[in-house]
Amino acid sequence: MPRMPRFLRAFMHFREKDASYYAAGIAFYLLFALTPFLLLTLSVAACFATSSSTYLDVFDTFFKENLPQVAQPIRDSLVHVFENRGQIGIVGLIWLFLTAKKLVNAIEIGLNAVLGIEKPKSGVFSTLASMALIFVGAILFLGCVLSTIAIDFALGTKVSFVNGEVRAVAAMIATSLVMGSVWFGIFFAIFRLAPAKGLEGHDGLVAAAATTVMWIGARQGFVWYGAKQLARYQYLYGALSGFLLLLLFAYIFGISLLMGACVAHKK
């Protein structure tokens, strides 16, 4: 009897573990903890810079390319808090970290379930994993900043045999590759650090690659869907339409993440 294709086996395992239930939990905590997590990551990255303006410019680009238009209020609030981060204080930083940690805990629970890991991490290791993910996010954001600056510098140079349209296409492709690499790094770090027993070597790379492809494809489909259906949502739900679309967007993220883990799971 021929063996089922890997992706089909992953889908069956996803259904068997009722992973959509855990994806809903990740979606809730993603909305709840996204702003604190991004704020901490952005602040750690900015510690290595003399000026935060460049980081905000790159963050704007990353935000626009990876989150739907209805998330603009989150972006505005995040930038406002980031620009005034010196007034947060120690208590505020502790609260931000504890809130961001909830997202890591939700991801850990979901990944433990689909990977068949019964024993969760202790509170100490969970805290260390949260700190490591924030630090990795900051490093990846720094790499994104430096790569974006290098692309702008290289393609902004006037080259006689390359016209403006070719440079624009090359910049778009290079920027997409950088963004894809950042997402791959984020997912690989999640699969290594979040579950009680991190995916190692080939399994971690497979899970990160599968999640990156699914997430980028789903995100593009969501952007198209949101642009087509936003007016209808606003008519039906009024002020709640933006929140509902964000919740759906976060749910898609949770499904992509857990599905990627199912692809790498071995029975």
Describe the structure.
The chain is mostly helical. The chain has one domain (6-264). The protein is 81% helix and 0% strand. The chain has helices spanning 6-16, 19-46, 53-66, 72-83, 89-115, 123-156, 164-193, 201-237, 241-264. Helix 1 crosses helix 9 (241-264), helix 2 (19-46) packs across helix 9 (241-264) and helix 7 crosses helix 8 (201-237). It is globular. The model has no long low-confidence stretch (mean pLDDT 77).
Query: What's the gyration radius in Å?
Result: 19 Å
Percent of residues in helices: over 70%
Q: Can you tell me the number of structural domains?
A: 1
Figure out the total of helices. 9
- Supply the helix-strand structural class: mainly alpha
- What is the mean pLDDT? 77
Features:
mainly alpha; globular
How would the blueprint of this fold be written?
Layout: H1 6-16, H2 19-46, H3 53-66, H4 72-83, H5 89-115, H6 123-156, H7 164-193, H8 201-237, H9 241-264
